[in-house]
Amino acid sequence: MRAYFDHNATTPPAPDVIEAVVGALRDDFGNPSSVHHFGQRAKALLDDARTAAAELIGAEPGDIVFTSGGTEADNMALRGAAEAAEAAGSRRHVIASAIEHEAVLNTVKALVRRGWTSTLLPVDASGIVAPGALAAAMTPQTAIVSVMHANNEIGTIQPIADLAAIAHEHGALFHTDAVQSVAKVPVDVRALGVDLLSLSAHKFNGPKGAGALWIRRGARIVSTMTGGKHERNRRGGTENVPGIAGLGVAARLARAKLPAESTRIAALRDRLEQGVLARVTGTAVNGDLAARVPNTTNISFDGIEAESLLIALDLEGFAVSTGSACSSGTLEPSHVLRAMGLPTHRTQNSIRFSLGLGNTDQQVDALLERLPAVVSKLRTLVRR
Ligand code: PLP
C-alpha cells in the first residue's frame, strides 16, 4: 500500500480538474486576448474560473488577479505594495511574522536590500502571533504587514481580523498568505478584513503553476509583471488558461465539499494524532491544538532525526514531510519550530502529517500499525 500524508506540500488533482485542464489544452487553445471565436472561448474559461475563485473567498471576480501560484501572489502583494508606497511617500517599513513561508520571508529580505527596514513578529509557544506584538511593532513608517492565515508546517491559524485592524489603525496595508487555509477552513476576505490575499490551486486539488492574488478595490499596488494589458493591467503575460481553468474547477469542488470534507479530514487527523501519541512513547504535538486547520498535525519524536523517519516511512509506503517542502533534503532546523522556542532537538525531530482527498481510515490504521516498530528500530540504531 502507498498512502500520501503530504497534502500541505501539494495535492493530487481531482479527476474533474484533470478533465478541465486537458479540455482547455485540447479544445480552447485560443489566446484570451484575441477577439475571434477561439479567443473568446478561452476568455470564457478565464471568466468562469475568476467567478469560482472569487466565490471561494467571498470576493468580487474583478478583484482577482491570476498568478503562477502562491509564490508569485506573495511577491506581487509585497513588491507591488512596496512600489506603491515608495511612489506615495516615505513609508519604508515592512512587518511579517517570523513563521512565514519563504515566499514572504525572502521577499521581505529583497525589500531590505533595496533600503527598507523590516520587523519579524515573534510567535508564542503554540505558534500564534499576539496582536499586542504587532501593535508594538507598528511605526509611522510601516507600509505593509504580512501575516499568513494558516502555517504550512504546523497548521496554526492566526487571528487575522484583529491583526489587520491594527495595521489599518496605523495606515498600513495588510496582506495574508492564505495558501494553506483556502479550501480547508472558510475564508472570507471581508470577515478577515485584509487588503491582499494569496492562494494557490495545487494546495486544493488544482494544478500546479496557477494561483491568485485578491486585491481589495482601492488598495494601491503597482504591477510588478510589466507587459501587456492582461488581468486589467495588473499582470502582463498571456494567461495560463489550462491551469486557471483547473483552478476554477478545483475552487468549485472545494466550496461544495468544504464543510463535510473538513469534518471527515479532521476526524482522520485526530485519530492519526491520538493514535501516534498513544502508541509511540516520547511524542508530542507542536502548535496550537484548537486554532489549527483540520488536516495538519506536526509531531516530535524524541531520539530521532526527522529525515531518517521520513525515509523509513517512505520505504514502508507512507509519504510524510519534515515541514516545509522547500527545505526538505537539507537538515536545517525548522524556522517555524525555532520561532516557537522549541529546544533544538525538537526543531529537528518533527514530522508533519497533512491529510486530504483520498486518505482513508484504512490508511491511517496501516500507518498506526507500522509506525511503532519503525520508530523503535530507528531509536535502537541511534543508541548504538
Ligand atoms: N505560501 C505557503 C504558506 C505555502 O505553503 C506555499 C507552498 O508550499 C507557498 C506559499 C507557495 O505556493 P506555490 O507553490 O504555489 O508557489
What does this protein structure show overall?
There is one protein chain. The chain is an alpha/beta fold. The chain has 2 domains: 3-10 and 259-383, Aspartate Aminotransferase, domain 1 (Alpha-Beta Complex), CATH 3.90.1150; 15-257, Aspartate Aminotransferase, domain 2, CATH 3.40.640. Helix content is 43%, strand content 14%. The chain contains 12 helices and 12 strands. The protein has helices spanning 15-27, 37-56, 70-88, 102-113, 131-137, 160-169, 189-192, 230-233, 241-279, 306-315, 335-339, 361-383, and strands spanning 3-4, 64-67, 93-97, 117-121, 142-146, 173-177, 196-200, 211-215, 283-286, 296-301, 318-319, 350-354. The strands form 3 sheets. The protein has a 7-stranded mixed sheet with strand order 2-8-7-6-5-3-4, sandwiched between helices. Strand 5, helix 6 and strand 6 form a beta-alpha-beta unit. The radius of gyration is 21 Å and the shape is globular. Bound molecules: pyridoxal-5'-phosphate. Pyridoxal-5'-phosphate is lined by residues 69-71, 74, 101, 103, 148, 152, 177, 179-180, 200, 202, 211, 325. The site of pyridoxal-5'-phosphate has 15 residues, from helix 3.
Keywords:
alpha/beta, Aspartate Aminotransferase, domain 1, Aspartate Aminotransferase, domain 2, seven-stranded mixed β-sheet, 43% helix
H/E element order:
EHHEHEHEHEHEHEEHHEEHEHEH
State Rg.
21 Å
Number of helical segments with 4 or more residues: 12
CATH architecture of the largest domain: 3-Layer(aba) Sandwich
How many runs of DSSP E, i.e. beta strands?
A: 12
Mean pLDDT: 96
Q: Which structural class do the helices and strands define?
A: alpha/beta
Number of structural units classed as domains? 2
Helicity, as a percent range: 40-55%
- Strand arrangement, major sheet: 2-8-7-6-5-3-4
Any low-confidence stretches, pLDDT <50, length ≥5? none
* Overall body shape: globular
By CATH, the superfamily of the largest domain comes out as Type I PLP-dependent aspartate aminotransferase-like (Major domain)
CATH topology annotation of the largest domain:
Aspartate Aminotransferase, domain 2
The main sheet comes to: 7 strands, mixed
Approximately what portion of the residues adopt beta-strand conformation? 5-15%
Assigned CATH class of the largest domain:
Alpha Beta
Tell me the quaternary state.
Answer: single chain
